[in-house]
């Protein structure tokens, strides 16, 4: 055969062989990473290719490159040794067609595995609603009067029109907020002139405190591709967005933000500092300023009674200055669940939360009446708005299912007049331009952000599009919001990426321990095998490996003889063997199998015999909010366990303890607390706790020089074997969020 023909065949083989390489690569790839998505693929290509393992390269050669080379060799042999005239002179066409088939198969297989149809639909149909309807305050002309009005803006935690009675548009037979109801009726809430209160709808991205503040300040939802409450971890908070605080700062306003909690939570401090340079007056500030004792703490910090008292002090001071002021307050007593019962609360209703709302109504209205008596009131506009509807499920259960919930709204002493007589349909986005207008400013086009000036006759977006459409659009992904937040796709994916996990149950059934693994998530490699690594008495020098059997429903099971374990101290580690040879940890359970209760009261009752046995020591400490939700039964169980100090109900305190049959040392106080010592030559401990500190060094649960503390708020327990020094159980109970976490 001529060299020229061989060269042609080699070139043709390479061209035809590329589709085969693509097909075998796709086949190998998706049988190795069987849950890979387009976003994960893009993310890994951008972030991880430089770290490709030798195992992956070896598998690629064996599973993709080698079979592609075999296919290419067959094509070359076909072109070389089969005469051109064979198959009716269609030899070359047949060879080329095999390449086309391989290419189509590769593309179709990849398309199906990545669900490209859905991905393209998502990318093409990601909502542009916000971008299309956004009135950028950076481009809108806003003109203030020469004499600028002061602003007092009060976010009423979880307060909604629902809280009033049915006669006034509420959801109850008896009014929970009669004073606030009357205040709205005497002022402006954008109704139709009747006694039926109306208010703003809380849309997607606005239904928690930071989202509500952001919406009412900027006219935008806090809808971004990362957990919104993690905005406190960002270096900036929507740096290009111009909000109410930015506008007022440029107009020469002195601005303060007051709250009874720590303002850092959820990014509130970051937002107010970077959008208006607010002075932050919060719980830590009040302690540093000597307004409250260093050991004072109730609910989230201090109660609303003190918030209003501090606000009065600050108003008397800042009102003496020549510059206009904006004081923004956030109340807290009515936070779910059930609210905080302060000394001013009365017993008017059968449920606690209603009594707290009634008290909050009286306090807020009294504060407004006080303002009206001050010299600065004539030139001051007051805005009272619920931040969002309450999240208290029990309280909501009292409301009829067909009732439409809206947040409470009231504008007082505004330098603007509503121009129409009908009830406005509006959202909390509309508070932004409406507040600017209430200060006597004129707004080009009457719109800022997604909001509309309610004093004008310009349609709100809700009136224009309707609730169903606007809500559906806001629920969809918005690239525009990510751009405004300065969040790249890589940042979002990196933060939201979930590691491998699974649900697992490990229970003694007769003579066996039955281990069941189900709902496996985050494993992108093909699962080759599921194992349980068992270490009795924490002996990691020798482990027992049990292979689990896959069930028809996709779960995995195995039974282990009880005789091979110690129920009081055995570690179970469930390992997934991936197609790349990876050992992927899905679940771990350590120590005593009898101490795995997730109910707090049941756990307290379960560890009592351990503390009394003489064989174990129970250690307790507090990390931030831990004790506020203790019930009477919880307190009684802790006292029975061996804690001698009084534990006040409904207050955040620091609890630390080291309890066994021979000794019991515990402290309950408002201060940071610590315990340090030895149980015997085998067990030493160093415990630190605090209910309100923000220093990591104040949270330690160190057993034999090893800190086992989980970095989550709540009450932390460790049960230690006095003979071996082993921590046979470690658990964190977050009573506020009702979560239980184990190491």
Description:
With 743 residues, this protein is α+β, with helices and mostly antiparallel strands. 34% of the residues lie in helices and 21% in strands. It is built from 22 helices and 28 strands. The strands form seven sheets. A six-stranded mixed β-sheet has the order 4-3-5-2-6-7, with helices on both faces. Helix 11 (268-274) links the parallel strand 3 (254-259) and strand 4 (279-281). Helix 1 runs parallel beside helix 5 (91-114) and helix 2 (38-48) packs across helix 20 (489-496). The N and C termini lie far apart (72 Å). 40% of the residues are buried.
Whole-angstrom Rg: 33 Å
Strand content: 15-25%
Widest sheet: strand ordering:
4-3-5-2-6-7
Q: Estimate the helix proportion, in percent.
A: 25-40%
Low-pLDDT residue spans: 43-53, 225-234, 492-497
Shape: flat
Report the span from N to C terminus.
72 Å
Mean pLDDT: 87
Total beta strand runs: 28
Number of helices: 22
Major sheet attributes: 6 strands, mixed
Q: What class would the helix/strand composition place it in?
A: alpha+beta
Question: Which SSEs are present, and which pair or pack?
Answer:
Layout: H1 3-32, H2 38-48, H3 54-81, H4 86-89, H5 91-114, H6 116-125, H7 129-133, E1 142-143, E2 150-156, H8 178-186, H9 209-218, H10 244-250, E3 254-259, H11 268-274, E4 279-281, H12 283-288, H13 304-318, E5 325-330, H14 352-372, E6 380-386, H15 393-396, E7 409-412, H16 431-438, E8 442-443, E9 447-448, E10 451-452, H17 461-465, H18 467-475, H19 479-485, H20 489-496, E11 501-509, E12 512-521, E13 527-536, E14 544-547, E15 549-550, E16 556-561, E17 570-578, E18 583-589, H21 600-613, E19 616-623, H22 632-641, E20 654-659, E21 664-669, E22 673-678, E23 684-689, E24 700-703, E25 706-707, E26 714-721, E27 727-734, E28 739-742
Parallel strand pairs: 2-5, 2-6, 3-4, 3-5
Antiparallel strand pairs: 1-8, 6-7, 9-10, 11-12, 12-16, 13-14, 13-17, 15-16, 17-18, 19-20, 19-26, 20-21, 22-23, 23-24, 24-25, 26-27, 27-28
């Amino acid at each position: 055969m001529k060299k020229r023909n061989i060269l042609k065949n080699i070139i043709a083989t390479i061209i035809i062989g590329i589709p085969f390489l693509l097909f075998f690569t796709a086949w190998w790839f998706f049988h190795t990473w069987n849950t890979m998505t387009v976003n994960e693929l893009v993310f890994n290509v951008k972030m991880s290719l430089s770290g490709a393992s030798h195992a992956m390269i070896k598998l690629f050669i064996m599973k993709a490159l080698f079979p592609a080379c075999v296919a290419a060799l067959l094509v070359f042999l076909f072109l070389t040794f089969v005469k051109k005239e064979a198959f009716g002179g269609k030899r070359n066409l047949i060879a080329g067609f095999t390449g086309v088939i391989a290419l189509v198969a590769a593309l179709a297989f990849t398309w199906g595995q990545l669900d490209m149809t859905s991905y393209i639909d998502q990318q093409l149909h990601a909502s542009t609603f916000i971008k299309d309807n956004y009135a950028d305050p950076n481009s809108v002309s806003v003109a203030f009067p020469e004499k600028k009005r002061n602003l007092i803006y009060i976010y009423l935690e979880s307060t909604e029109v629902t809280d009033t009675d049915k006669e006034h548009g509420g959801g109850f037979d008896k009014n929970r907020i009669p004073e606030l109801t009357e205040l709205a009726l005497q002022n402006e809430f954008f109704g139709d002139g009747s006694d039926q209160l109306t208010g703003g709808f809380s849309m997607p991205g606005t239904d928690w405190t930071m989202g509500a503040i952001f919406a009412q300040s900027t006219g935008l939802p806090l809808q971004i591709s990362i957990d919104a409450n993690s905005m406190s971890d960002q270096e900036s908070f929507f740096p290009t967005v111009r909000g109410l605080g930015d506008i007022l700062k440029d107009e020469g306003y002195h601005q303060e933000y007051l709250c009874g909690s720590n303002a850092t939570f959820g990014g509130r401090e970051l937002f107010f500092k970077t959008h208006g340079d607010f002075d932050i007056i919060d719980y830590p500030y009040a302690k540093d300023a000597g307004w409250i004792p260093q050991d004072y703490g109730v609910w989230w910090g201090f109660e609303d009674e003190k918030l209003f008292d501090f606000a009065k002090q600050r108003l008397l001071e800042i009102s003496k200055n020549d510059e206009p002021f904006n004081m923004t307050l956030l109340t807290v007593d009515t936070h779910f669940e059930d609210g905080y019962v302060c000394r001013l609360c009365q017993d008017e209703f059968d449920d606690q939360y209603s009594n707290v709302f009634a008290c909050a109504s009286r306090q807020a209205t009294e504060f407004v009446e006080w303002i009206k008596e001050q010299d600065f009131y004539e030139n001051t506009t007051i805005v009272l708005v619920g931040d969002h509807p309450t999240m208290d499920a029990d309280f909501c259960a009292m409301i009829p299912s067909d009732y439409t919930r809206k947040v409470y709204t009231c504008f007082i002493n505004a330098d603007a007049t509503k121009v129409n007589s009908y009830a406005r349909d509006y959202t909390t986005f509309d508070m932004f331009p409406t507040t600017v207008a209430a200060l006597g400013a004129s707004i080009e086009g009457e719109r800022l952000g997604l909001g509309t000036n309610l004093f004008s006759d310009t349609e709100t977006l809700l009136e224009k599009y309707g609730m169903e459409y606007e809500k559906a659009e806001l629920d969809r992904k918005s690239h525009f919001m990510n751009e405004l937040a300065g969040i790249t796709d890589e940042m979002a994916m990196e933060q939201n990426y979930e590691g491998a996990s699974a649900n697992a149950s490990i229970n003694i059934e007769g003579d066996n321990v039955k281990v069941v693994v189900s709902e496996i998530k985050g494993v992108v490699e093909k699962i080759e095998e599921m194992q349980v690594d068992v270490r009795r008495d924490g002996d990691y020098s020798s482990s027992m490996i049990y292979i689990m059997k896959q069930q028809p429903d996709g779960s995995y099971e195995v039974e282990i003889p009880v005789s091979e374990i110690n129920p009081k101290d055995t570690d179970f580690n469930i390992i997934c063997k991936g197609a790349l040879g990876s050992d992927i940890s899905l679940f771990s359970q350590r120590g005593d199998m009898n101490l795995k209760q997730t109910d707090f009261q049941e756990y307290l009752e379960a560890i009592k015999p351990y503390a009394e046995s003489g064989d174990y020591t129970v250690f307790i400490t507090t990390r931030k909010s831990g004790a506020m939700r203790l019930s009477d039964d919880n307190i009684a169980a802790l006292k029975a366990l061996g804690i001698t100090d009084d534990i006040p109900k409904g207050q955040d305190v620091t609890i630390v303890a080291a309890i066994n049959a021979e000794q019991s040392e515990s402290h309950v106080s408002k201060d940071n607390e610590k315990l340090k010592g030895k149980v015997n030559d085998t067990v030493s401990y160093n415990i630190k706790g605090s209910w309100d500190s923000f220093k990591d060094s104040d949270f330690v649960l160190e057993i034999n020089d090893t800190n086992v503390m989980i970095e989550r708020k709540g009450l932390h327990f460790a049960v230690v074997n006095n003979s071996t020094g082993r921590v046979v159980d470690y658990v964190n109970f977050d009573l506020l969020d009702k979560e239980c976490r184990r190491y």
